[in-house]
Each structure stands twice: as structure tokens, then as C-alpha cells.
Amino acid sequence: MLQLQNYINGQLVASLSGRYLDNIEPATGQVYGQIPDSGPADVAAAVRAAEAALPAWRARSAEERGRILVCIADLIDANLERLAQAESRDNGKPIALARVMDIPRAASNFHFFGTAAEHFATEAHVQEGVALNYTVRHPIGVVGCISPWNLPLYLFTWKIAPALAVGCCVVAKPSEITPATAFLLGELCQEAGLPAGVLNIVHGTGPGCGQAIVEHPGIKAISFTGGTATGRHLARTAAPLFKKLSLELGGKNPNLVFADCDLAAAVATSIRSSFANQGQICLCGSRIFIERPIYEAFKTEFLRQLEAQKVGDPLEADTRQGALVSEAHLHKVLEYIKLAHEEGGRLLAGGYRVAVPGRCANGYFLEPTVFENLPHDCRTNQEEIFGPVVTLTPFDTDQEAISWANSTDYGLSATIWTTNLNRAHRVAQALHSGIVWVNTWLHRDLRTPFGGMKNSGVGREGGLEALRFFTEAQNVCIKF
Ligand code: NAD
Question: Which residues form the active site (predicted)?
């Protein structure tokens, strides 16, 4: 049985409580490992290590820090297969996806921010003949990074890398549901020569360990990705402590398909944007609005291509749909399927738990599920399901599509399918979404601002936004 450890002060150590939590493999429903059930004492030890490491780490040049981060990126690449196997087993995601998306992106995160810090310039404001102002961006200090289970190493490193790049030291907690690759990252950091205490990884539950990170007075900023309810609780905890917060929260993203689109491209990508990672990507487009003249054509082709989405053992190379992450999450999604029926939805595909024979007989598998005939304002179309469930809805005018798209409390991402350039610009700018993709989905450039409007979050990650978040701006004014 795999027993994970915390990574504190450069060492792999057990939790001070001596307690462990079970780690379950979603594809089998079996306990296959244990993780430290860390609490405030472990977090305090991690913060002490980070505070001790901070002066030397921030004093290094951006180039020196960057070299170590690029070395970590190279080690992630060199261990791609091992990490992809671990991610697939821990999360239930198809190994094919972990190999091309999760693990390569984790390496890119370290590579991108490892080199970005060297290009991080600052502003000067000259008051002609009077004074010169310049801005210094100091690393904010010890920071906390808390991440969710859906893209474990991908999102964990997306937070850690920019913090380290600007000279912060980090106390990080992965989701207790998917801790495996974060543990392996600790080993790779040792191998890369990251100085002890610069990055500390503590495992444990949200209330037991995450809460202690948010409350610790030595932690100056929190970068959090997770659910909107958790984000709200975190904001309440952090506000009186005046901590800087970056919150990347839930979504209920619209996918707008106009009649003038390239239908083949729209359908093929919509299959991905609906069901990639079993629909458990915050950016998945679960509300598909289709302009009425092509509604039937889109639906027919979408349902045809859906048949090729093989549900099966995530460790098999040709599996396209793996297991949902946990039994509790499977039941939450099944409850939403029941609700969709109650709200008058017509089931077009899926809707049931799948029994995958062999070692996966007790796994948490669900058929990709499609409903139609649901109003835009019903709960199925308003609440985040975060599973392989989408709705198809015809619309008649651009205005109708825009107002339905904007009708939820969320505003993370949106996708538009059209070949009309004017419409693309007009609709994109009318949408209340932090990210709008036109004729593509999940196309990422790490320099761009990433984050949501409304209940999808506060602040932006990515590029300069992330480097600024982990720094404190100071104005120096020199009178001539
Ligand atoms: P979650 O909010 O349950 O947990 C996220 C993390 O927060 C976990 O590490 C958890 O242990 C920790 N946590 C829980 N309670 C805490 C507390 N009181 N104090 C500190 N930490 C605490 O979310 P989840 O179920 O792991 O992830 C799914 C959610 O994440 C979905 O809503 C999804 O949309 C969202 N998400 C958003 C983005 C984005 O970029 N906006 C990306 C991925 C996932």
C-alpha cells in the first residue's frame, strides 16, 4: 500500500499527528494508498521552514531561481509516463489525457514561469523636472496554494511555479482526493536541487489542513482553485487577516453554436468541451445553445460522435471516458440526472452508471449524458454539475443566445462557433465570461489572463497577472 508523506523543509516526512487518510482509486473503488492527515502543527512546521528559506531564495537572481524551475520542468518531462500513470490511477482520468494534457502542462508551467521572471519588468513614472517614481515589486513572502482534484498536477504547479519564480516561498496543499502527483513532485524538487523549505507540500483535508493554511498569520497570500462555496468560506476567513486572495471557482459555461459555423469542427470540439475528463474541467461547456436552423443537424452528428467515446479502464490507452473522481461525486451527478428528468428534460444519450468488467467492476463510471427540452433557467441549466452531463437548447436570435449564456451566477468561460467575424467580436464582448474562445476550446497561451467573472472567482492567473499577484508593489519617489 502506497503511503505518501508531506514534503517539509526538503524532507519527506510523516504528519505530526501520525494519522492517515485512505486514498481510493476511482476506477476500482478500492483503497490503494494512504495520505498524511495533516493539521495546524504540520502547517506551522511548513511555514517555519518557508520563512527560514525566504531570505536566501528571494535574494537569488531571477535567472538562478529560473534555472531550478526549468530543471523541475525537465524532470517532469523525463518522468512523464510515471506521472501520467499516477494521475490516471489517482483521479480516474484516461491515461491518454494525462499523457498529452495534464503532465506536459505541468512541465510547461514550470518552464514558462521559470523563464518569465527574467522578463518581468517594472514601471517608472517621470514627472518632468520634478520627480521620478519607480515601482519595485517585492515577493510578498510565504504564500499558500490550494488546488482541486480535477487537474491535480496541472493546477497545483500553475500556482506554485509563479510564486517560486518571483521569490516567494510556498506552503501548498493538493486535494486530499488526488494527492499522488503532488507527492511525486516533492521527490522531483529534491532531485532538482530546490533549496530546503522553498516549497513545502502538506497533505490533508480542507477543514483540517487547508483551513490552517488560510488562517496562519505567516502566510501573506492565498491562491485557491476549487468550488464557489469553498471560495466564499475562504474569503470570509482571509478578509479580517487582510490576506491577498486569488480565487478560481466554479463555472457553468455556455457553448454557442451559430448557423454559419463550420459544423464539423463545432461538433468534434464540442464533444471534447462537453466530456473531456468526464466533464470535470471547470472550462467544460455544459450548456450548448444551437441556432435553430442547424439544431437537428448538430444534434444528429453530436450523438453519432458520442458513440465513439469509449467508457472504460482509465489505464487502457484507447479509453476516452474514465471514472468520475469519487463515489460521492458520482452520486451528486446522478442526482442532477434525476433532477433533469424531473424538470422535463428529454434524455438523448447516456443517463446511467456503467459497469466496466474486470478490475474496474466497482468503479465510478457514468455514461456521457445529453438532455434536450430544458429551459435555460431551470436548475439543471443554472447549477454546476461538474460531470459528463450537457444540455442542447435551440435559440432564434443572437440576443436570445447572449442573454441565456449570461443568465447564470457564473462567468468563467464561453465558446462561440461562427464564421462571421463581426458576430464573433460582438458576441464575445457581450458575454460575461473571463475567457471566450471563438472556433476553439481550451486553447491556452500561458501569457493570457485566466480567471472568471461573477461567482467564478476574483483575480486572474497567468502571465504577468500571476507574477504581480505574488508580489507587493512599492512606489519609490525621488525628487529631482
Ligand atoms: P473544493 O472547493 O471542494 O476543494 C478545493 C481545495 O480546497 C481542496 O484542496 C480542498 O481540500 C480545499 N479546501 C476545502 N475546504 C477548505 C477550507 N475550509 N479551507 C481551505 N481549503 C479548503 O473543490 P473540488 O471539489 O476539489 O474541485 C471542484 C471545483 O473546483 C469545481 O467547482 C470546479 O469548477 C472548480 N475548479 C475551478 C477552476 C478554475 O480555474 N476556475 C479549475 C478547476 C476546478
Answer: 248
